[in-house]
């Protein structure tokens, strides 16, 4: 058989593939997969487009339409609301038993001081009638007016720290500062030191309606109110005495504590002497008011110390 009689077969190249075979070479498939992976990574790492102005405006309008409490334009109103919320939170952090005992001590002390005020007033009235207290008052009042350390105009200025227009803003300011410093006990106690002593003094006034002196400037500075006991003396000792106690409590220096006592005593004495120099009170009025102020100050300090101790214990337990 000659070669031309053999059947003809198509020649296949080494790199050729049959018709209909759609499989890609392995290298080409892996290359495509790598390219797809790189493209996905590129899209993931690309920064997201910034929101348009319309989208920002829409979000702002949506947030503003939510039911939120509008902020006040008044700084005082905003600050008062924040102070009140802080005060409520700090009050709740103190055990309820401490507040109840604090209130119970003050209530019992108020009744006891009121009874003491009535008793001191009855005693003073009897001494004026039977033991020459009136003559003693007149003699010392004229002595202070003649050879005292201050003149009439100076006394007007010196008695101002015992006035309502001075003590009310002072106690409110101290209370606000205490609340901002997370000291609610100090805040309420400084207010109680002022407002609590007023009904105690009133109990004495209701017991004896003693007339004011008329020996200085024809009674120019003597208001038409009850004279015995002195409200200025009682208020000054209660308020400034409690502030002095807070000062002493924070100090570890004996010299500083002594200085706090001396300064407070001098401040209260200045107010009291000024009241006598103006002819607004008899000297015995000042003495009785000072005794009542000291009694109420003692009650306030005892109540504060107990509640403060319970507050510290609760803070340690939580910590």
Task: Give the second-level CATH assignment, the architecture.
Answer: Up-down Bundle
Q: What is the tally of helical segments?
A: 12
Summarize the main sheet: none
CATH class: Mainly Alpha
**Low-pLDDT regions:** 1-48, 53-68
The helix/strand series, from N terminus to C terminus, equals HHHHHHHHHHHH
Class from helix and strand fractions: mainly alpha
How many runs of DSSP E, i.e. beta strands?
0
The value of Rg in angstroms is 43 Å
Query: CATH topology, which one?
Result: Vanadium-containing Chloroperoxidase, domain 1
Shape: globular
**Roughly how many Å apart are the termini?**
110 Å
| Overall pLDDT | 81
The share of residues in helices is over 70%
Number of domains: 1
Beta-strand content estimate: under 5%
Structure description:
With 319 residues, the chain is an all-alpha fold. The protein has a single domain, classed as Vanadium-containing Chloroperoxidase, domain 1 (Up-down Bundle), CATH 1.20.144. The protein has helices at residues 26-45, 53-64, 75-93, 96-130, 133-147, 152-158, 164-180, 184-195, 197-207, 231-250, 254-277, 283-318. The longest helix has 36 residues, at 283-318. The radius of gyration is 43 Å and the shape is globular.
What labels would you give this structure?
globular, 319 residues, Vanadium-containing Chloroperoxidase, domain 1, 12 helices, mainly alpha, 71% helix, single chain
In short:
The protein has 319 residues and is mostly helical.
Secondary-structure blueprint:
Elements: H1 26-45, H2 53-64, H3 75-93, H4 96-130, H5 133-147, H6 152-158, H7 164-180, H8 184-195, H9 197-207, H10 231-250, H11 254-277, H12 283-318
Helix pairs in contact: 4-9, 4-12, 6-11, 7-8, 8-12, 10-11, 10-12
């Amino acid at each position: 058989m000659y070669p031309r009689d053999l059947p003809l077969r198509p020649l296949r190249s080494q790199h050729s593939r049959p018709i209909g075979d759609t499989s890609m070479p392995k290298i080409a498939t892996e290359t495509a997969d790598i390219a797809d992976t790189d493209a996905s990574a590129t899209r993931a790492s690309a920064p997201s487009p910034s929101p348009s102005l319309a989208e920002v405006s829409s979000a702002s309008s949506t947030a503003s339409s939510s039911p939120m409490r509008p902020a006040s334009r008044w700084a005082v109103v905003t600050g008062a609301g924040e102070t009140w919320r802080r005060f409520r939170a700090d009050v709740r952090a103190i055990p309820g038993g401490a507040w109840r005992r604090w209130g119970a001590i003050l209530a019992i002390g108020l009744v006891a001081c009121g009874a003491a005020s009535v008793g001191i007033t009855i005693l003073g009235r009897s001494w004026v009638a039977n033991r020459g207290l009136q003559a003693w008052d007149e003699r010392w009042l004229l002595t202070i007016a003649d050879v005292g350390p201050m003149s009439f105009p100076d006394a007007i200025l010196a008695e101002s720290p015992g006035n309502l227009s001075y003590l009310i803003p002072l106690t409110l300011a101290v209370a606000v500062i205490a609340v901002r410093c997370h000291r609610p006990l100090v805040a309420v106690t400084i207010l109680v030191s002022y407002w609590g002593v007023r009904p105690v003094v009133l109990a004495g006034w209701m017991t004896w309606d003693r007339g004011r002196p008329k020996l200085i400037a024809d009674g120019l500075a003597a208001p038409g109110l009850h004279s015995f006991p002195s409200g200025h003396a009682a208020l000054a000792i209660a308020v400034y005495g409690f502030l002095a106690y807070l000062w002493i409590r924070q100090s570890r220096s004996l010299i500083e504590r002594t200085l706090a006592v001396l300064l407070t005593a001098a401040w209260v004495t200045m107010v009291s002497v000024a009241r006598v120099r103006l002819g607004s009170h008899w000297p015995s009025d000042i003495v009785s008011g000072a005794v009542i102020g000291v009694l109420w100050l003692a009650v306030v300090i005892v109540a504060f110390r107990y509640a403060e101790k319970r507050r510290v214990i609760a803070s340690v337990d939580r910590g």
